[in-house]
Amino acid sequence: MKDIEQIYHNNFGVAFYWKKENKTILDKVQLVFRETGFYLSISELNQFCDLIEDSLIENTCCKACEMRNSCHKFLLKTPLSQVDLAVSMKEIKSIKDLIEGTLFRIDLDEYVYGPGLN
Q1: 5: which residues sit within 8 A by CB, 6+ positions away?
Q2: In angstroms, rounded to a whole number, what is the distance separating the alpha carbons of residues 31 and 22?
Q3: What is the pLDDT of residues 26-40, one digit of tens each?
Q4: Contact criterion met (CB below 8 Å) for 41 and 27
Q5: Ramachandran sector of residue 17 (left: φ over 0; alpha: ψ -120 to 50; beta: rest)
Q6: CA 11 from chain center: how many Å?
Q7: Which of 30, 45, 64, 65 shows the greatest Cβ crowding within 10 Å of its Cβ?
Q8: Nearest partner of 8 among 45, 60, 58, 62, judged by Cα
Q9: Please, what is the end-to-end C-alpha distance for the chain in angstroms?
Q10: What is the pLDDT of residues 54-74, one digit of tens each?
């Protein structure tokens, strides 16, 4: 696809920048997973990451449950106050990996092509 620049992907989803007229739009990141798309700023991605951590901590009571990785009983808050997601523990971890991998690649690219550039 010519209209996107992929940042990161895993088996659950993908994160990318949109391109317009051959220029990459770097102010927001498109996340797509489970038939859902979010167009978020870096600040919102960091906020989403924090919300996932909160959800993982809040749902530690299910460690002994046989269904903890597959039931859809968890509500995951998103940076958009109007949107919460019903997800399994396995999906929460996949979303966390997608967001953390995306933020890592953004930070790495910023360093390599910014202060790290000789």
Answers
A1: 16, 17, 19, 24
A2: 20
A3: 999 999 998 999 999
A4: yes
A5: beta
A6: 13
A7: 45
A8: 45
A9: 31
A10: 998 887 766 666 665 566 678
Token output for 87: 């997800």
Quote the crossing angle between the two packed helices 42-58 and 89-113, to the nearest 10°: 150
Identify whether the C-beta of residue 39 lies closer than 8 Å to the C-beta of residue 60. no
Residue partners of 27: CB distance under 8 A and separation at least 6: 41
Cross-strand partners of 77: 84
Kind of pairing between the strands at 29-33 and 23-24: unpaired
> Which tokens sit at 44?
């919102």
Tokens matching residue 6: 């992929």
The closest alpha carbon to 17, from 113, 109, 26, 104, belongs to: 26
**The tokens of 8 are what?**
């990161």
Q: Rounded to two decimals, what is the model's pTM?
A: 0.87
Nearest to 54 by CA among 76, 39, 72, 27: 76
Is the model's pLDDT at 78 over the cut of 90?
A: yes
Closest CA to 54 of 13, 92, 22: 92
